[in-house]
Amino acid sequence: MSTTTIRPTCAFEKITPDTAKQMLGVNHANRRLIDSGVERLKGILERGEWMSDSTDAIGLDIDGGVVNGQHRLTSIMESGITVEALVVRGVSPDVIKVIDQGQPRNLAQILQMQGKYEYASDLASAITTLWRIGNDFEKTLPTAHKPTVPQLLEFFDVHPHLVDSMRTAVDVAKVLKGLSRGWLAPYHYIMSTVDPDAADEFYSKLESGAEINPGDPVHALREKIFANASLSKPEAGSVPAAWLVKAWEADRAGKSLTKQTLKYQYKGARAEDFPKVSNIEFDPDGAILLEDEAA
């Protein structure tokens, strides 16, 4: 007696919100749905980033159960947007054990693959940070709002000269270990939009420590960073970046600062909003505008 092996089929299919709902109705063995992941995917659909030929198929097992694509189908259903997608039907239910074991490509890897950026990893971090600054996510970046690689690449197209600030950031970061290149570069870029000569001078003094005295905001920032680096649990990430912005603002205003008066309350009852570089704002397309231009 012979047995017939049923092999999976694969085809591009139009998936409407109703189709997605029907597929999810047989979703009998899958991981817990993560709401923030669904919201992020809905953003991808709404921005038109969905690509039907991405090769990442919706997978349905021999009973029609969803083994791959639960979050995508939910986002289609909730967004009301119809898409075309690759659908593989008739796979073994056990395939769910080996799905999503690969390593997704991130922005740094995409930039490295382009082969034209000396500090691709740091540049990727700087692009992401600049995007966060422009969208008021300096403190934290909620998963639901985490930008996609296409979003960041499109954003980078608006800010190609961020690359020019990378060398400055690299030089300063060699001296001040507590300020990362991923924060230094975007703030140099933003500050240069306000006043390029002042931004270069501010960063030059920050790197060298020359021509500064106690009371000078740059002197206070250097002392703050060096003191922080000596702690067993130093402040990291956005907190030193907040000190950077506060020192810049004080310097522009001709105000005096010391290590003790240069403060930023990140959390708690007296938590502060993240400081902003004055006289600039981001337009809806992500471009930086000076205050008079925005008006």
Instruction: Give the strand order, joined by hyphens, for the main sheet.
Output: 1-4-2-3
Unreliable stretches, pLDDT < 50, 5 or more residues?
Answer: none
Q: Write the H/E string, N to C.
A: EHHEEHEHHHHHHHHEEH
In whole angstroms, the N-to-C terminal distance is 82 Å
Q: Which percent range describes the beta-strand content?
A: 5-15%
Q: What's the alpha carbon Rg, rounded to whole Å?
A: 25 Å
Going by helix content, strand content and strand pairing, the class is alpha+beta
Query: How many separate domains make up the residues?
Result: 2
- Biggest sheet details: 4 strands, mixed
- Using the alpha-carbon principal axes, give the shape: elongated
Mean pLDDT: 90
- Report helical residue fraction: 40-55%
Q: Number of DSSP helices?
A: 12
Number of strands: 6
Could you characterize the architecture of this molecule?
- The chain has 295 residues and is of the alpha+beta class.
- It folds into two domains: 9-97, Conserved hypothetical protein from pyrococcus furiosus pfu- 392566-001, ParB domain (Alpha-Beta Complex); 107-294, no CATH class.
- Helix content is 46%, strand content 10%.
- The strands form two sheets. The chain has a four-stranded mixed sheet with strand order 1-4-2-3, covered by helices on one side.
- Helix 4 crosses helix 5 (120-134).
- The longest helix has 16 residues, at 238-253.
- The chain is elongated and about 80 Å long.
- The N and C termini lie far apart (82 Å).
- The model has no long low-confidence stretch (mean pLDDT 90).
